[in-house]
Amino acid sequence: MDIQAQKSIIIEQFKQVNDIKLINAIKSMLDYAMQKEADVYTIPEEHQKLVMERFDQVRNNPDTLLDWDEGKKSLKFK
């Protein structure tokens, strides 16, 4: 069963609920889920700007990039 079918079934079941405590509990869970999803995809503007500045630096000076194999040699692993 795909996610849209599951949602449809849940919506139909929810329509039958008359218990206000259950309705409030479900609403709280949905509010929490929506906030978590928003948090996952929200990237602060300062971070976006920093990444774009770094992309611009690389585009303007591609010779400053290290080859991965060469860069890896300079890393210290414990």
Task: Describe the model.
There is one protein chain. The chain is mainly alpha-helical. It has a domain at 15-60. Helix content is 73%, strand content 0%. It contains four helices and no strands. The two termini are 47 Å apart. The model has no long low-confidence stretch (mean pLDDT 90).
Can you tag this structure with a few keywords?
mainly alpha, 0% strand, 78 residues
Q: Could you give the topology of this structure?
A:
Elements: H1 3-15, H2 20-41, H3 45-60, H4 68-73
Secondary-structure element pattern, one letter each: HHHH
- Tally of separate helices: 4
Q: What does the radius of gyration come to?
A: 24 Å
**Silhouette:** elongated
Point out poorly predicted stretches. Answer: none
Fraction in beta strands: under 5%
The biggest beta sheet reads: none
- Determine the structural class based on helices, strands and strand pairing: mainly alpha
Mean pLDDT: 90
**DSSP helix fraction:** over 70%
According to DSSP, the number of beta strands is 0
Distance between the termini: 47 Å
Quick take:
The chain has four helices and no strands. With 78 residues, the chain is mainly α. It has a domain at 15-60.
